[in-house]
Design a protein that fits this description.
about 75% helix; mainly alpha
Amino acid sequence: SADGSKVSDATLMEVLLLNDFKLVINKTAYIVSPPVKDKLSSEHATEMEDIKSLVHRLFVALHLEDHQIRKERELLQKLDHLKGELLPLEQMKARIMDRADAKTSRLLWVGLALMSTQGGALAWLTWWVYSWDIMEPVTYFITYGSAMAFYAYFVLTKQDYIYPQAKDRQFLHYFYRKSKKQRFNVERYNKLKDDLAEAEESLRRLRQPLHLRLPIQEISDKD
């Protein structure tokens, strides 16, 4: 600039030409004095912006449909490709989930059987073998041990021992262990599912302006 400050290379030419500046070539400075340009009035500037916006709308209206049809065809091809890749993974996942669910259910039934056996054994020892005076400390320590086990579960998992959450956690444990044995790539499956959801959302957003017959800029402004 005229006071010796360097001008950024991102400065627009129309901004640079508003004032005098120095042009340095091979260490030689040349004073550049651009011609005086009458400033536009606010009404004239607004009118020019309206004309630019109108030209842009006309261009978009003339070329929007072909662009969106081509984009829709690309998205449909991408959806078909993703669904084709997901189909065998979905079938494998369904088999793994069935086995993990069956194993989790068996574990729950085993837990119920063990608790029933424990209750029956304590009742038998209390009423037929010993007396309540002898069995009371035993039941106390069993209860205290159960409390310690629940607290250890909280320390290890940072979650309360709630039966539905414990069941889901055990299901996921069996699922991931079975997935590793079956070589089911969970990360790739999740990536394909995310790509599929993104493509479906893009297709939905693309078909909305086709239905409304609105330019993309207006759709973006509404979003």
